[in-house]
Amino acid sequence: MPQPEEPIYCSQQINIPPELPDVLKQFTKAAIRTQPKDVLQWAYAYFDALSKGETPPLGGKPIIELSSLEEKWKHFSLPKETLEELLRIGSFPEELKWLDFLALACSAVSESLTLAMKTVCEILTTDLKGGSARIPFSLFKELYTYLAEIDGEIPKEHVSTVIDHLNYDMEKQDGQISPRNFMSDSCPPLSPNESS
Questions:
Q1: What's the CA angle centered on 24, arms 20 and 27, to 5 degrees?
Q2: Which of 86, 94, 116, 129 would be a feasible disulfide site paired with 110, CB 3.0-4.6 Å?
Q3: pLDDT digits (tens, 9 = 90+) for 92-133
Q4: Coil, strand or helix at 41
Q5: What 3-state DSSP class applies to 131?
Q6: pLDDT tens-digit readout, 48-73
Q7: How do residues 136-159 score in pLDDT, each as one tens digit?
Q8: Rounded distance, CA 34 to CA 102, Å?
Q9: Which residues are bridge partners to 65 per DSSP?
Q10: Nearest C-alpha neighbor of 98 from the set 129, 139, 131, 130
Q11: Cα–Cα distance for residue pair 153/166, rounded to 1 Å
Q12: What is the similarity comment for this entry (predicted)?
């Protein structure tokens, strides 16, 4: 008995949902920004969040529940002890500002406050990879001030001096700031303990 022929598909027979290219494009951009160690686990967490109507992963919501953060942390296969230490340092309640948590996590893996803020910019920017990594100056000020307060050894006057200096750059850049601004020789170091 002859084998049934496999169906032949042509472009007219394949129905591609119109939203698929956008979904894949957003997924690819998120993966590039996140650089997950376990891509399959991260992809699962990403599409799981999408299927639940959530913004994947962690982004877009100013406040996140601690239980949701713990679940996402687990999806990324990150050490539980690291999360516990970050939660202790930040004194985070049951609902926390996820951008504060992100900034604190960046500082935990960076050698300096400047490098932490550079990483924050690279993660949060909407610029293409390899671009300026600009973020709104208001967001920079909020996260820089937060990390300076957590540090506890950076005087408020120093933070004000840095912000005043960067305000000039921001005005010329449509309210945006990038690492090249706060890493330039003319800018005071983000922490007085860092060499300029």
A1: 140
A2: 116
A3: 888 888 889 999 999 998 999 999 999 999 988 877 878 888
A4: helix
A5: coil
A6: 777 877 666 654 457 788 888 898 88
A7: 999 999 999 999 999 999 999 999
A8: 12
A9: 95
A10: 139
A11: 21
A12: Belongs to the ropporin family.
Long-range contacts of 177-184 (CB under 8 A, 24+ apart): 177/121, 177/134, 177/135, 177/136, 177/137, 177/140, 178/121, 178/125, 178/132, 178/133, 178/134, 178/135, 179/117, 179/118, 179/121, 179/122, 179/132, 179/133, 180/132, 182/114, 182/117, 182/140, 183/114, 183/118
How does pLDDT run across 15-46, given as a tens digit for each residue? 777 777 777 877 777 776 666 667 777 788 77
H-type helices in the chain, by residue range?
A: 20-34, 39-51, 66-75, 80-90, 98-108, 113-124, 137-151, 156-172, 179-182
Place of tokens 């679940």: 71
Task: Identify the three-state secondary structure at position 153.
Answer: coil
- Extract the tokens encoding 187: 């800018």
